[in-house]
Amino acid sequence: MSRIAKNPIKISKEVECAYKEGIFSAKGKLGQMQISVNSNYKVNISEEEVTVSPINESNNDPNWGTTRAIIANTINGVTNGFSKTLELNGTGYRASISGSKLKLELGFSHDINFDIPKDVKIECPKQNLIKLTSVNKEKLGAAAAKIRSFRKPEPFKGKGIKYSDEFIFRKEGKKK
User: Fold this and answer.
1) What whole-number distance in Å separates Cα of residue 9 and Cα of residue 26?
2) Cys bridge to 65: 5, 51, 139, 144, which one at CB 3.0-4.6 A?
3) How does pLDDT run across 68-110, given as a tens digit for each residue?
């Protein structure tokens, strides 16, 4: 049996949760989200907690804990939201926002224009910082990974785009 899946999800009074015909929806102060739940599970909503339980008790399906975690992330997203911060390290590396595009200058002969997804908000407080916020954890992580993939940090000088909490293992250069 899954230990994570058995735990109930605490909800506050400002969140409205509903489950109907395999679709779980949560509405909070930051927005509204809907996710489809696997048909092997049912979602029980009470006053202050949400529980996920399998329809067939003898079934020990590994997706039970995953389903519970996705529902917990949905509830957490509409109440608190999620954020990631990216840092640009390198001479001349800059980021700026123009309209609905993120303009990146990363040492290539051309600038990279990244279309900002509609569920993700991006702001650049400094030229070398990119702050992403969203209610959807999956789309936030995908957008941050896509931006990072344009110029991953290299191990010798540490140049590139990295997460703010990421540690880059440095290598020693060539010896003469």
Assistant:
1) 13
2) 5
3) 999 999 999 999 999 999 999 999 999 999 989 999 999 999 9
Are residues 57 and 94 both part of a single domain? no
pTM, rounded to two decimals: 0.88
- The 10s digit of each residue's pLDDT in 26-76 is 999 999 999 999 888 889 998 889 999 888 877 677 888 899 999 999 999
Of the three residues 64, 79, 94, the one that is the final residue of a domain is 79
Question: 49 is in which domain, residue-wise?
Answer: 3-79
What's the CATH code of the domain at 96?
3.90.930.12
Q: How many domains does the chain have?
A: 2
Q: Which two tokens stand for residue 121?
A: 């908000």
Q: Read off the amino acid at residue 68.
A: R
Instruction: Judge whether 169 lies within some domain.
Output: no
**Closest listed residue to residue 35, CA positions, set 50, 13, 48, 57:** 50
Q: Say if CB 18 and CB 80 are below 8 A apart.
A: no
**CA–CA separation, 1 vs 5, rounded Å?**
8
